Amino acid sequence: MKEIFERISVRKFKDTPVEPEKVKQLLRAAMAAPSASNQQPWEFYVVTDKDTIKQLAAISPYAACAENAPLVIVPCYRTKDLRWEETVHIDLACAVENMLLEITSLGLGGVWLCAAPLEDRMSKAAKALELPDSLRPFAVVPVGYPDEHRPQQDRFDEKRIHYIR
Questions:
Q1: Domain containing 103: what range?
Q2: What is the number of other CB atoms lying within 10 angstroms of the CB of residue 45?
Q3: What is the reported pTM?
Q4: CATH at residue 50
Q5: Which among 36, 56, 59 has a CA at the least distance from the CA of 47?
Q6: Is residue 103 situated within a structural domain?
Q7: Residue 59 banded pLDDT, cuts 50, 70, 90
Q8: Rounded to whole angstroms, what are the CA distances from 35 to 74, 89, 122, 126, 155?
């Protein structure tokens, strides 16, 4: 899949809205992710409100790039009725990776901004979204048409591969 080798972290966006059908496709891709015992602990907040985006951009110094994105998606996880609460971060990581690959596939750009497991960031994001206690924010993902282009770094390192024969 070429998107694996083309995906980059985009932090600069054009002032162009993302079409609703593309947003839905991103969410479909996220929800197609594998999940422990198929528990699918995810909920997704789709944010276009500029005031809320500004609050999300303030959850950490690294999130400032979100302020100029036309769209921010905040994947959250449920804290109740889970069979394997120990795996929710893994499930959400898979969902975010699927979303990032679909972002690339659709000609969009995005970046994964960490919230979980850092409590201060999670609290700020939860407050911005007015989340119920039963939901916890996992990440902040600004999305838009990229206003920056560069090739992906080649991270392949043969020295990190160990064969046992």
A1: 2-146
A2: 19
A3: 0.95
A4: 3.40.109.10
A5: 56
A6: yes
A7: very high
A8: 18, 10, 22, 23, 27
